[in-house]
Amino acid sequence: MDNNTYLVFAGIGIVLLVASCIGWLLKWRSGNQPSPVIDNLNARINAWWVMVVVIGIAFMFGNIGVIVLFYLVSFCALREFITLTPTRRSDYPALVAAFYFALPMQYLLIAIGWYELFSIFIPVYLFLLLPILSSLGGDSTRFLERTTKVQWGLTLAVYCISSVPALLTLDIPGYAGRNLLLIA
User: Fold this and answer.
1) Both ends of the chain: CA-CA distance in Å?
2) How far apart are CA 156 and CA 161, in angstroms?
3) What letter would DSSP give residue 179?
4) Residue 140 backbone phi and psi in degrees, to 5
């Protein structure tokens, strides 16, 4: 990390410190009485502290740390999306491909800097492969609806989120070695 990145984190830390003091002061002024609004505010400030610490740790490990962090975020987001989506047993091959092939491959392509394939891997190749895998089960009940939900879950939870660490692969003249700032 360069000095600008440290300055960004210092600025965020100062803002969070001021917000934490305000939250503590509001709680103190209410006489420590239960207040859903103040408790919600303090819970959100604490969540921001956790997010900044986690992102800071990822930044300390450089590009690989950021890629691994966003891989885990994508995995959790995809898992939650699929949990809320009705699936059938015949969708299992497509789901296995989404979790154990597409997700790691997308982030591997980012890690090796293969932008050309990263940018079309899910919207082109996986959009063609997933319906084929779903059809192998022979279940045509709501086939298009189920396939679309898996495809869009992969698009939102993996492709869109993976665009953030993909900023690390950009070659911006005069900005070499400072791509972490694009994420911050």
Assistant:
1) 11
2) 7
3) T
4) -100, 5
Note the pTM of the prediction, 2 decimals. Answer: 0.85
Nearest-angstrom CA–CA distance, 114 and 117: 6
Query: Would you say residue 93 has pLDDT above 80?
Result: yes
**Exposure letters 146-173 (e unless 16+ CB within 10 A, then b):** bbebbbebbeebbbebbebbbebbeeee
Instruction: With both helix axes pointing from N to C terminus, report the angle between 3-29 and 36-60 in degrees, rounded to the nearest 10.
Output: 160
pLDDT at 23: 94
Residue 179 has pLDDT above 80, yes or no: no
Amino acid code (one letter) for 77 = A
Q: Which two tokens stand for residue 35?
A: 């207040």
CB atoms within 10 A of CB 134: 25
Token pair 């003091």 in the structure block, residue: 21
Residue 104's closest CA among 126, 131, 74? 74
What residue has token string 């045509």?
Answer: 140
Q: What is the pLDDT of residue 47?
A: 97
Segments of the chain assigned E as strands: none
Mean pLDDT of the chain: 90
